[in-house]
Write a structure and sequence with these properties.
By secondary structure, the chain is of the alpha/beta class. It has helices spanning 9-16, 62-67, 69-73, 88-99, 142-151, and strands at residues 2-5, 23-29, 32-37, 47-52, 75-85, 103-106, 109-114, 117-123, 131-139, 161-163, 166-172. It folds into 2 domains: 2-59, Signal recognition particle alu RNA binding heterodimer, srp9/1, CATH 3.30.720; 63-172, 2,3-Dihydroxybiphenyl 1,2-Dioxygenase, domain 1, CATH 3.10.180.10.
Length: 173
């Protein structure tokens, strides 16, 4: 799942749902709202459009994350997602259309810029097919986090941090 926090959920839904996309789940309760778009209508992952009122409130995990020592001392933000596809340009085009943001090529990869990050589209290469292959986490000291992950046996042979089968790319905050 790729979660995008939006300022105006109704406008984001309007853009995303043209032409019609299937909604897999939707809620709006007491200022916490989301709409999940079916992955077959966008490609690679469920797109979740989320809105919180106030914006700083984050119902989907902030409390648990805030209690995590590692998260408090190391991580700053999730700043990117990498979706792998058999045809990255086609998937990037669908995401651009549904997100209302242009896709462009940079460093040999298709990308969509977000307000505070990006979505990258790459060739499927790990045998799992289309889907979320990696995400980017801004950390205060990538080398320290990398060393901790290595000590915990969370590195793959190429040196990537692996959490629940997904690659985590460490980015300096």
């Amino acid at each position: 799942m790729v979660i995008l926090q939006v300022d105006d959920l109704a406008e984001a839904e309007r853009v995303c749902m043209t032409p019609a996309a299937r909604v897999v789940d939707q809620t709006d309760k007491d200022g916490a709202a989301f709409t999940h778009i079916h992955p077959k209508d966008i490609g690679g992952a469920i797109l979740s459009l989320d809105h919180m009122d106030p914006e700083e409130r984050w119902e989907w995990g902030r409390t648990r994350l805030a209690r995590s020592t590692c998260a408090r001392t190391s991580s700053v933000a999730i700043v990117g997602a990498e979706l792998q596809a058999e045809d990255p340009s086609r998937m990037a085009s669908r995401w651009a259309h549904r997100s209302g943001r242009p896709a462009h090529q940079s460093d040999g990869e298709w990308r969509i810029n977000l307000d505070e990050g990006e979505i990258r589209f790459v060739q499927a290469r790990d045998g799992r097919g289309e889907g979320l292959g990696a995400f980017d986490v801004a950390v205060r000291s990538p080398s320290v986090v990398h060393s901790r992950a290595e000590a915990m046996g969370l590195l793959d042979p190429n040196g990537a941090v692996i959490l629940s089968g997904t690659r985590v790319r460490l980015v300096a905050a």
